[in-house]
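Reopening this one. Same input as before:
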Amino acid sequence: RERENPKQAPASESDLLNKRLKLDYEEITPCLKEVTTVWEKMLSTPGRSKIKFDMEKMHSAVGQGVPRHHRGEIWKFLAEQHHLKHQFPSKQQPKDTPYKELLKRLTSQQHAILIDLGRTFPTHPYFSAQLGAGQLSLYNILKAYSLLDQEVGYCQGLSFVAGILLLHMGEEEAFHMLKFLMFEMGLRKQYRPDMIILQIQMYQLSRLLHDYHRDLYNHLEEHEIGPSLYAAPWFLTVFASQFPLGFVARVFDMIFLQGSEVIFKVALSLLGSHKPLILQHENLETIVDFIKNTLPNLGLVQMEKTISQVFEMDISKQLQAYEVEYHVLQEELIDSSPLSDNQRMDKLEKTNSSLRKQNLDLLEQLQVANSRIQSLEATVEKLLSSESKLKQATLALELERAALLQVVGELRRQTAAEPSGPEPDLARPGPTGD
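Same output, byte for byte:
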């Protein structure tokens, strides 16, 4: 049960321990025995990487649940199936540089990656130890990816995606699956430096809310709450920074099956199924606080309801239409010839003040990050000085121990020398004189 692949050699005890540690999360849609058997049969099919499996069968199996201990292997299997069904033009693919080769190089993104390591699943035992096994593997994957895909490099949020993969498979496999999700399942576009795609995604989500949950859309509009206030981290970390691991793992199951539009479906379903609670809140702060902090912890039943709704949804046509709509609106904004100079100035002023506000927010975040770095550096200094004190104390103790051992040695030699002195000889003359 512990092994993912019957052909592999038995895992060492520390590997099994690590695997148990990684997979220690509460499952959404617990997997029944017969569903696990269906998966095991598919996974152990001879020559499976060249066989196209029935899409309906895979869809139904993912819907009924994915066994936690086989999850990494199932994601790889779904990726193989995707490759068989879609032959991509080579321009979409990165250069095929071997992982070990990438690890030998230096990355200019090192500082940004290191800062984010401690913020990625900070309470999970596999990642919480500073520069422990989990953080080192995560660093390697992110470094290798930043070298492979120099346009994206490293972007905040990516560490959570890589972290989820790493909890379910080995380091190099996780790297290949990250590459697959980014280039073939459409995640990469939202991390590009201009962040335009993220803006488009926020617009698309807003339009979907307008279509499916008009009362909620109106409520949020009334309080001037756009999706970017709460949903940007959902997209950039694929829900992993705020939601329970069992839920995030289910979202990944569906992304491997259906691609990145799953993120929209999950966001829409989450907002829809918590609509009555959101509508109770009457100001910007409490609404945003509820969506960001309370909603992710509302329990397994709601989570499972969200997941099953997602399987029934098809929004691909709307997403395409709203992307086109966004570009048309942007062009209209740019091509503003019918506008008077005053109107144009007003528009520019509004854009300007919104950018200033964003700038101030970012500055604030930067100051928080800087003070965090300073406190971490101070902690490191303290640790280093206490380490050197400990080394001195250890040295003094070792010298003391050596001196004591010398004294003990002296005493032993003296004790050993005493019994062989004249005392036993004095006892002998009595009987011989007799």
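So the earlier flakiness isn't reproducible anymore. For the record, The chain has three domains: 1-88, 95-185, 194-244+254-334.
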